[in-house]
Amino acid sequence: MSTTHTNKIDIIKAATSKINEVDFDNLSFGSVFTDHMLECDFKNGEWQKPVIKPYAPFLLDPSARVFHYGQAIFEGMKAYKDESDDVWLFRPDENYKRFNNSAVRMAMPEVPEDVFMNGLNELLKLDEAWIKKGKGNTLYIRPFMIATGEGVIANPSDDYKFMVILSPAKSYYSGEVKVLIAEHFSRAANGGIGAAKAAGNYAAQFYPTSLANAAGFQQVIWTDDATHTKLEEAGTMNVFFRINDTLFTAPTSERILDGITRKSLIDLAKKEGITVEVRPVLVSELVEASKNGTLKEIFGAGTAAVVNPIIGFSYQDVYYELPKTENSYATQLKDKLTNMQHKLTEDTFGWTVKV
Ligand SMILES: Cc1ncc(COP(=O)(O)O)c(C=O)c1O
User: Fold this and answer.
1) Mutate to test the pocket of ligand 1, among 29, 201, 261 (most ligand atoms within 8 A of CB)
2) Ligand 1 centroid to 321 CA: how many Å?
3) C-beta separation of 42 from 159 below 8 A
4) CA-CA distance, 219 to 301, in Å (whole number)?
5) Which one of 34, 80, 87, 230 is CB 3.0 to 4.6 Å from 130, fit for a cystine?
6) Based on the domain organization, do 13 and 132 belong to the same domain?
7) Which structural domain, as residue segments, surrounds residue 30?
8) Whole-angstrom distance between the N-terminal and C-terminal Cα of the chain?
């Protein structure tokens, strides 16, 4: 192990790399991690010096607040390597802002920009060999923060740990996705934490999603908690609906995560001359459009899968199958976005940032 100290960050390098043990052609999403991780503690009311160190488990007191009261947030982003071996991030400022919005909502301290951005850049430089070239190869980045303060007292913690871990990923394909439209369970409510990337939001989805899985559906499309009449988002994706040639998606709200893929696709679609309507979309409209043949596509949008086409949905025990659409918006928009992320086309929006 070698150690480098700068006034901003300490770097402890792993003595050996695990990279040769990894089969990069058969990666299961989110299951392999690189050689290093970033760690920065919040103690005595301030952020300590960040450190990059070998990826390894760490100890926490059993009374740490994260275990009892769920003060935990995270982000999901990706790094890409272009043909000249340069490494790029996609709209990292948006992830940084969203992370701190989540922190505020969960009564956690905001992470300084320098710790998040400089720490991430240094970590990516160190584990750069784990980012493979070629479309479809990415490095998934998982920044997160947990409450480490001790005591089973239902108050916000005094101490926190911010970390970044990295996981090489192939393009994510979840097969043919059938969805169940939520009629009883809710993911989020007005005044709640739906717009935050808080760990508990995901835990709360597991049970209803497992019921949907048992019934033959891969995902649930959540509806508004008050009336269950408005289509909101899926597990880790925002959702788009194409009726005739117009693309619809719900406005973000206190209940919906402000997805970066979502907002990028809206801008890309508009640039392509596609009409996009951001407005509440009713379940009844979807059923009606399916019945009269105007519903052409449904797809999810999020960092992991980028764009995930949905082949059918169930509502009130009736299954509605989608037609096969040639030259779908899902495929067109996914291509445009991933080409830009991999620097295969010009980024006219200025969304890609070099590491
Ligand atoms: C609940 C939820 N909605 C939407 C998204 C998509 O957001 P993004 O495009 O920023 O990944 C995610 C994934 O981060 C999510 O967890």
Assistant:
1) 261
2) 25
3) yes
4) 13
5) 34
6) yes
7) 2-169
8) 24
CB 139 less than 6 A from any atom of ligand 1: no
Amino acid at 77: M
Residue type, 97: K
Atom 15 of ligand 1, nearest CA residue: 236
Residues 83, 15 share a domain: yes
Per-residue tens of pLDDT for the chain, all 355 residues: 677 766 789 999 999 999 999 999 999 899 999 999 999 999 999 999 999 999 999 999 999 999 999 999 999 999 999 999 999 999 999 999 999 999 999 999 999 999 999 999 999 999 999 999 998 899 999 999 999 999 999 999 999 999 999 999 987 766 789 999 999 999 999 999 999 999 999 999 999 999 999 999 999 999 999 999 999 999 889 999 999 999 999 999 999 999 999 999 999 999 999 999 999 999 999 999 999 999 999 999 999 989 999 999 999 999 999 999 899 999 999 999 999 999 999 999 999 999 9
Q: Which of 169, 204, 230 is the last residue of a domain?
A: 169
Report how far ligand 1's centroid is from the alpha carbon of 339 (Å). Answer: 20
- Output the domain CATH number for residue 129: 3.30.470.10
What residues contact residue 33 under an 8 Å CB cut-off, 6+ apart? 55, 165, 166, 167
Based on C-alpha coordinates, what's the Rg of the chain? Answer: 21
CA atoms of 335 and 355, how far apart (whole Å): 23
Phi/psi for 271 (5° steps) reads -65, -30
Please say whether the beta carbons of 128 and 5 come within 8 A: no
Global pTM reads: 0.96
Q: What is the CATH number of the domain that holds 322?
A: 3.20.10.10
